[in-house]
Specification:
Layout lengths: L8 E3 L16 E3 L18 E5 L8 H11 L5 E5 L16 E4 L4 H5 L4 E4 L3 H9 L4 E3 L4 H12 L3 E3 L5 H13 L1 H16 L2 H15 L1
Parallel strand pairs: 1-2, 3-4, 3-6, 4-5, 6-7, 7-8
Helix pairs in contact: 1-5
Length: 213
């Protein structure tokens, strides 16, 4: 968004993911995302798993969820759909055998097994997905999410969803699933995250700045 040369700043992503990182001064410490571990494991019941979540704020999207069910209900994929607290599972009608609906899930646990993530593109969700080497179908809802989605698309680790129709959803999921380069690019970003200094680097930056003053 901006590059303030006079402010010491800790950045919770990698220089690889940050657009125009080469224009940032040494005052910026790219320490990588803060990723919590999964609290449990989930059972992967089919060869491929599609995870769908629109986050915890702008997720009152009953029609979109129904379109996802229509699109993916007759596929060989296992589908996990997290809908938040404002949608009830019964509002979605009878579910196909391959689709499970939850109000909330342990997102890291799901991403550890997922092959594609259809996401609203919040920064935390994108970080977690890429850290798990999972490519994305990009469905941003707000301005900052559109910025994050644009960067994922620039790095070819995800595909923008053109429309919220069943046909467009199925086409996007199939394309990401069937195109190895999306997963390869997600893995490349994950490797960049892993090389970052993490919490220790953030602490070192704070101590360095405090020592200078």
């Amino acid at each position: 968004m901006q590059n303030d040369e006079n402010t010491d700043t800790i950045v919770y992503t990698s220089a690889q993911f940050q657009p125009c990182a080469d224009t940032f001064s040494e005052r910026y410490a790219f320490v990588g995302p803060s990723i919590r571990p999964a609290r449990k494991r989930i059972e992967k019941k089919r060869e491929k798993l599609v995870y769908i979540s629109m986050g915890t704020v702008n997720n009152n999207m009953l029609r979109f969820y129904k379109n996802c069910i229509t699109a993916l209900g007759r596929t060989p994929f296992q589908v996990i759909l997290s809908v938040g607290s404002r949608i009830r599972a019964e509002d979605l009608g009878r579910l196909p055998e391959n689709i499970s609906v939850f109000s909330f899930v342990d997102q890291m646990a799901v991403l550890m097994e997922a092959d594609v993530f259809l996401s609203h593109c919040g920064m935390n969700s994108v970080n977690e997905s890429l850290a798990c080497r999972v490519p994305l179908v990009l469905c941003p809802q707000t301005a900052e999410q559109r910025g994050v989605a644009a960067r994922v698309a620039q790095l070819s680790a995800g595909l923008p969803l053109k429309k919220k129709t069943p046909g467009a959803i199925l086409e996007a999921v199939n394309r990401v699933m069937d195109t190895p380069s999306f997963a390869e690019n997600a893995a490349r970003i994950a490797q960049g995250f892993a090389k970052c200094s993490g919490a220790k680097g953030a602490a070192d930056k704070i101590l360095l700045v405090c020592g200078e003053r």
